[in-house]
Amino acid sequence: MKNLENLFNPPFKQVSGCVILADEDVESLEKGFKRAIHLYKDRTGYEACNTETRINDYFEIKLSIVSGTAIALMVCEVWALRLKCLEPDSKFCIILCSNDERVELRFHKVRNNEKSWLDSDIDSYTEGAVGYIYV
Predict the structure, then answer these.
(1) Residue 8: CB partners within 8 Å, gap ≥ 6?
(2) Does pTM top 0.85 for this prediction?
(3) Can you tell me the distance from the alpha carbon of 17 to that of 95, in angstroms, rounded to the nearest whole number?
(4) Starting at the edge strand that comes first in sequence, how are the strands of the sheet with 103-109 ordered?
(5) 8-67: per-residue pLDDT in tens?
């Protein structure tokens, strides 16, 4: 049950105008923010890389792609509500990716001055399925 609680209720942290998932305290994250932005190129990349969540990692048994996707969609709904409660005026892109091995979720804020983390041609992803929602 602890794994499910961590999946549905991860530690959302607000760091320098970004929202990420991290166990570290915000002060520590703020100190390393400039270095992180240099590494990830922009705030969108920082968020997308620091919110990656592999659904399969929360279960001891191997999940089918159907079960993993169904669980990911439920997690999407909960995260969407939590993100909008955290920052009601921000728009977020929640991304679901899956292939034969795993199902992943991640998110980032939608910013006018930065490109989306996803390629604009979603059909270019050929190694699995990719979907997203804006909230």
Answers:
(1) 74, 75, 78
(2) yes
(3) 20
(4) 53-54, 103-109, 92-98, 129-134
(5) 999 999 999 999 999 999 999 999 999 999 999 999 999 999 999 999 999 999 999 999
Q: Is 3:74 a contact under the CB 8 Å cutoff?
A: no
Cβ neighbours for 106, distance < 8 A, ≥ 6 positions apart: 48, 49, 51, 52, 53, 94, 95, 97, 117
Domains of the chain, by residue range, sit at 2-134
Helix then strand count (H, E) for the chain reads 5, 6
In DSSP notation, 25-45 reads -HHHHHHTHHHHHHHHSSHHH
The position carrying tokens 């991304």 is 95
- How confident is the model over 101-125, as pLDDT tens digits? 899 999 999 999 988 887 777 777 7
